[in-house]
Design goal:
Its main location: membrane. The strands form four sheets. A four-stranded antiparallel β-sheet has the order 2-3-1-8, sandwiched between helices. It has a three-stranded antiparallel β-sheet with strand order 9-10-11. A two-stranded antiparallel sheet has the order 4-5. Helices cover about 60% and strands about 10% of the residues. The longest helix is centred in the middle third of the chain and has 47 residues. Strand 2 and strand 3 form a beta hairpin.
Length: about 675
């Protein structure tokens, strides 16, 4: 098969089409047969598998096929001297390989597959008539065949396939390996799932390891009665967790930078101290390519057009943010306050339970509406790519969840100053909510999969009424097709399942940080939950869901800013909690203790913004490697430019011609 031994073929993409009876005389005109032949013509290895009601076309690509399409796509890859150059198949040895030894990452391979299967077009000057179960389909000139079949409903889905060998290896070394606690094979996760998922698990592992310190401190505060010393111990605990959080995120930035360097993610070559990851520009309002191409004729008009595009982009985003904020204040805030007040004044536990059930049902409806409105709004923003749209969506939807999760807790803490009720609410939100969330999160995919299997078997029996006995799914590709996708609860289009996972972490972080002085034991519960979360999330990805579509985001994106915002909020809320703990009589006199708390708050705010200066966001070895690569790139470009200017080398027809001493040119 295309010169590749069968035992080395790894099928990575599946195309789903309906199962049908095909006559020999119509075989050459059948659209599925044409599609399979076109797949083979572009260099793909094809295997066809029949399921209960559908046919599955599995695709694999030899390295040469991937390499040539990568060159056609003008894909940029890192060379051995650290410069990102356009990939050329003939110069394959010049490019750096991945940590697992492969030439292309999973994200790059997936891009190549998408290009191959979507660039199969009708190259004739006239339409081609195809058939499917007696139905004629017009394949227009220049039209993508896969797109036409998707519009006709013949191609049902195209999805990535699990690699069984690597999947089982990750199950043993990662998902089922509970003895290593927070240890994870991050490089193998990156090679199998791509950058974004690997970054999430690296963040979750580091976050859980760092949580050992506040969990231990909080456990000591919970078990030991310090008596009157609590007025000193709790401020010390508050200061320590703020410093812990600030340091953690500074060191996370360093780790993120080190991972990007280890995985050879693209860096812009520059000798300056700043750098940026490709695809993650810090300015999200870059002008579109058409505007840049059309510029240069009239400098004044060009400047006006770019400025107009930039400010319209800012105004659109500001308008959308105002709409979301006003909706939260005018609609969600009164509802949340009404629920918190009723929960406080009601005496019967049964009535409280019923109120909570109604609240949860209504708030789910509110959140879905808010998510849909946010999705519609961001489609009218000038976001450069999907990742920027996803970040904008994260900010807007997190505002809804922030109000939903914290306003009731603020109500008990700020107005009633009822620490007992506050702790009960925190226990309810942290323990019961997270346990139930994990149960639902991991059982729901299995229930969906079981229901789809049941429907497939029932439909098979309806079609073939004389069929008796148990029906088995003989192929793994059909089982993967029935599994749910790794998608976000708000938008499958802009976000993957990591939205829900990061949202769960952010809400947990805000709860334990903002009310740390009221319930120090929360850190211990969260640490245990996160240890279990790592393994259950891994098991979910490897066994319960389809293989996710890879995303190229090299950082945690908007979530980093949300975590930083929660640190600032925690400084304010914990300072208020300490004031109420100190001033239990409510006299509000500026005594030494209260004054010390206010001073401490301002000092912590200064420390929060000052630590970025003391802890560099980039490790020294990464910075040195980047500077070395940038210097080498400049030296090579300078020498080449000097040779070209002096006439010793001329670029002609793709070859470098060096002048001989007699004045003639020698091609190299």
């Amino acid at each position: 098969m295309n010169g590749v031994p069968e035992d080395l073929i790894v099928y990575e993409i599946a195309v789903v089409v309906p199962k049908r009876n095909l006559n020999e005389e119509n075989k050459g005109y059948d659209c599925v047969e044409v599609l399979v032949n076109e797949f083979r013509n572009v260099g793909l290895i094809v295997e066809r598998v029949l399921g209960l009601s559908d046919e599955f076309i599995k695709l694999a690509a030899p390295l040469e096929t991937l390499g040539r399409v990568a060159a056609k796509m003008q894909m940029k890859k890192t060379t051995h001297i650290g410069i990102d150059l356009q990939f050329e198949w003939e110069d394959i040895k010049a490019f750096v390989r991945q940590p697992d030894g492969s030439l292309f990452s999973w994200c790059e391979r997936f891009q190549c597959y998408r290009h191959l299967i979507h660039e199969i077009v009708n190259k004739k000057n006239s339409d081609v008539t195809l058939k499917f179960d007696g139905k004629e389909i017009q394949w227009e000139a220049g039209e993508s065949l896969l797109q036409r079949l998707e519009l006709e409903g013949i191609v049902k889905q195209v999805f990535p396939l699990h690699d069984e060998t690597k999947r089982k290896k990750l199950l043993r070394s990662w998902a089922l390996n509970w003895w290593d606690f927070t240890a994870q094979p991050i490089d193998e996760i990156y090679a199998y799932f791509g950058t974004k998922i690997a970054v999430y698990f690296a963040f979750l592992g580091m976050y859980t390891r760092w949580m050992i310190f506040p969990a231990t401190f909080g456990l000591i505060l919970q078990l030991i009665d310090f008596g009157s010393l609590k007025l000193l111990v709790f401020p010390a605990f508050f200061i320590s967790i703020v410093l812990w959080a600030v340091l953690f995120f500074q060191f996370w930035k360093r780790k993120n930078s080190a991972l990007s360097a280890r995985w050879h993610l693209n860096f812009s070559v520059s000798t300056s101290e700043g750098y940026k990851l490709s695809g993650r520009e810090w300015n999200s309002l870059q002008p579109p390519l058409e505007l840049v191409k059309n510029s240069g004729i009239d400098k004044t008009k060009e400047k006006e057009a770019l400025q107009r595009y930039e400010w319209f982009g800012y105004l659109k985003r500001f308008r959308n943010d105002v709409i979301i904020i006003l909706s939260i204040i005018c609609l969600q805030l009164p509802f949340e306050l009404a629920y918190a007040h009723l929960y406080e004044v009601l005496k019967s536990d049964m009535v409280k339970f019923g109120l909570t059930v109604v609240y949860l049902l209504v708030i789910q409806y509110f959140t879905k509406i808010g998510g849909k409105i946010s999705i519609r709004l961001i489609k009218h923003e000038n976001n450069e790519n999907t990742e920027y749209q996803a970040d904008s969506l994260v900010y807007k939807v997190f505002g809804l969840y922030f109000m939903q999760s914290y306003i009731g807790v603020f109500y008990h803490a700020l107005l009633h100053r009822n620490f007992m009720t506050l702790r009960q609410v925190l226990i309810q939100r942290l323990i019961l909510y997270e346990v139930l969330e994990n149960l639902v999160e991991n059982s729901l995919p299995y229930l969906k999969y079981s229901y789809k299997k049941y429907r497939a078997v029932r439909n098979k029996k309806k079609r073939e009424k004389g069929l008796i006995g148990k029906i088995q799914f003989a192929t793994r590709v059909e089982k993967e097709y029935l599994k749910p996708t790794y998608s976000a609860s708000i938008s499958e289009e802009l976000e993957d399942g990591l939205f829900d996972d990061f949202l769960e972490l952010a809400l947990q972080f805000g709860m334990i940080m903002m009310f740390a002085c009221a319930f120090p034991l929360a850190f211990a519960f969260s640490a245990l939950n996160n240890i279990a979360e790592m393994r259950t999330d891994a098991l979910k990805l490897l066994a319960m869901l389809r293989r996710p579509v890879p995303r190229a985001a090299a950082t945690i994106g908007a979530w980093l800013n949300i975590f930083q915002f929660l640190i600032l909020m925690s400084i304010c809320t914990n300072s208020a909690l300490l004031v109420w703990l100190y001033d239990q009589e409510g006299k509000w006199k500026i005594e030494p203790g209260l004054a010390a708390i206010l001073v401490m708050e301002h000092v912590l705010l200064l420390i929060k913004f000052g630590f970025s200066r003391f802890v560099p966001e980039e490790p020294a070895w990464v910075r040195a490697k980047r500077m070395k690569n940038a210097t080498q790139a400049q030296d090579m470009c300078s020498k080449q430019l000097l040779r070209t200017i002096s006439g010793r080398e001329k670029v002609f027809g793709g070859y470098i011609r060096r002048k001989k001493p007699d004045g003639t040119n020698k091609a190299q």
